[in-house]
């Protein structure tokens, strides 16, 4: 089974890329969704969070607002939280990949930029980031979230630059298409073809 790590800044078209992978019969592991599910269901992870951040877990239930107030204003605390939660998320993705491979799945994708530095990239045969010109990204964020240009621009500009993603990923997909359908077809072709020895697009 070929496993691809996918990432990219907000509004670049990553969701379209992941939908293209699904259309090829691939399975997609959304690490953010897995993380949120584990916050509800993983007793060991919740215990570890409660020990590190007293008062945030009571009766096996996480007080998300309390945790957010504790970690989001403190980079060191946020790193501590990640060091607790990332191994659980990676273990869950690994189990999912093993199950997908046993079922005969030929292609899988991990949507996981925040976890690459914690070892998620070791689960991937290749890593790809999706990028797009900043103005196109702003337009997509406005359309998707129903917000003003200035708010969308602030969100887009707050993202890490392409050089960060290039440092983590081996290849890239540039979304210069005027509509989602064109990019969808481009992504399908990109992942259908043998990637060995190909140049970055």
Q: Examine the coordinates and then state which fold CATH places here, giving the name of the CATH topology of the largest domain.
A: Rossmann fold
The major β-sheet equals: 5 strands, parallel
Low-confidence stretches: 194-201
Beta content: 5-15%
Secondary structure elements and pairings:
Layout: E1 2-7, H1 14-23, E2 27-30, H2 31-41, H3 43-52, E3 57-58, E4 61-62, H4 64-71, H5 75-102, E5 107-111, H6 113-116, E6 126-131, H7 134-145, H8 149-158, H9 162-168, E7 171-174, H10 180-192
Parallel strand pairs: 1-5, 1-6, 2-5, 6-7
Antiparallel strand pairs: 3-4
Give a description of the structure.
The protein has 201 residues and is an alpha/beta fold. It has two domains: 1-26 and 106-193, Rossmann fold; 31-105, P-loop containing nucleotide triphosphate hydrolases (Rossmann fold, 3-Layer(aba) Sandwich), CATH 3.40.50. The protein contains ten helices and seven strands. The chain is 56% helix and 14% strand.
């Amino acid at each position: 089974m070929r496993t691809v790590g996918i990432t990219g800044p907000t509004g670049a078209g990553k969701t379209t890329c992941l939908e293209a992978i699904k259309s090829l019969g691939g399975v997609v592991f959304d690490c953010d969704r897995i993380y949120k599910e584990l916050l509800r269901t993983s007793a060991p992870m919740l215990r570890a969070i409660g020990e590190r951040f007293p008062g945030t877990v009571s009766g096996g239930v996480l007080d998300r607002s309390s945790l957010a107030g504790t970690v989001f204003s403190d980079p060191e605390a946020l790193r501590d939280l990640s060091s607790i939660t990332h191994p659980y998320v990676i273990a869950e993705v690994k189990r999912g990949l093993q199950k997908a491979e046993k079922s005969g799945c030929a292609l899988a994708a991990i949507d996981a930029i925040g976890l690459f530095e914690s070892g998620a990239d070791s689960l991937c045969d290749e890593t790809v980031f999706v990028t797009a010109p900043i103005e196109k990204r702003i337009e997509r964020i406005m359309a998707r979230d129903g917000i003003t240009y200035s708010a969308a621009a602030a969100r887009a500009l707050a993202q890490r630059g392409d050089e960060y993603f290039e440092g983590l990923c081996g290849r890239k997909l540039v979304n210069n298409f005027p509509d989602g359908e064109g990019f969808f077809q481009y992504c399908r072709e990109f992942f259908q073809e043998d990637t060995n020895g190909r140049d970055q697009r």
